[in-house]
Amino acid sequence: MTRERLTSWLLVGIRYVLPAVVTIAGIVVMALGSETDVEGGASLVGTGLAIYLLNWLLRLGVASHREREAEQAARDYFSQHGRWPR
Predict the structure, then answer these.
(1) Average pLDDT for residues 53-66, to the nearest whole number?
(2) Dihedral angle computed from the Cα positions of residues 32, 38, 43 and 44, in that order, rounded to the nearest 10 degrees
(3) Which region, left, alpha or beta, applies to residue 32 given φ > 0 means left and ψ of -120 to 50 means alpha?
(4) The predicted structure's pLDDT at residue 64
(5) Is 73 inside a domain boundary?
(6) Which domain range does residue 19 map to?
(7) Residue 48 lies in a domain
(8) Looking at the domain assignment, is residue 49 inside a domain?
(9) Is residue 1 over pLDDT 80?
């Protein structure tokens, strides 16, 4: 297995599988447990959703950074050639 493929699987695992497993575990705890287990299960569901949302926010930050770099490259091109790149 190549390094890129391993990295891809790891990212999928952290982005989607980990939050899904934690959320499903919380639902199972709430469904099969007592009254106090409902609170613990709800905290697990909240944790799973928080993991997913943090991953989403980090991806948004990286995307906006790439957009800023592309915009700066276009401005540099404009400064050198006097026209906006196509």
Answers:
(1) 89
(2) 0
(3) alpha
(4) 83
(5) yes
(6) 3-81
(7) yes
(8) yes
(9) no
The overall average pLDDT reported for the chain is 92
**Structural domains of the chain, count:** 1
Is the distance from CB of 15 to CB of 53 less than 8 angstroms? no
Q: What is the mean pLDDT of residues 67-71?
A: 88
Tokens 């007592």: give the residue: 34
Angle, helix 18-32 to helix 35-81, in steps of 10 degrees: 160
Q: How much is the pLDDT for 65?
A: 81
* Two structure tokens written together for 18: 């980990």
Does residue 6 sit in helix, strand or coil? helix
Residue 46, C-beta contacts closer than 8 angstroms, at least 6 positions apart: 26
* Residue 86 in domain: no
pTM for the full model? Answer: 0.72
* CA end-to-end distance (rounded Å), the chain: 38
Tokens of residue 24, six digits: 């499903």
Question: Which tokens in the block code for residue 56?
Answer: 């989403």
Residue showing tokens 């982005």: 15
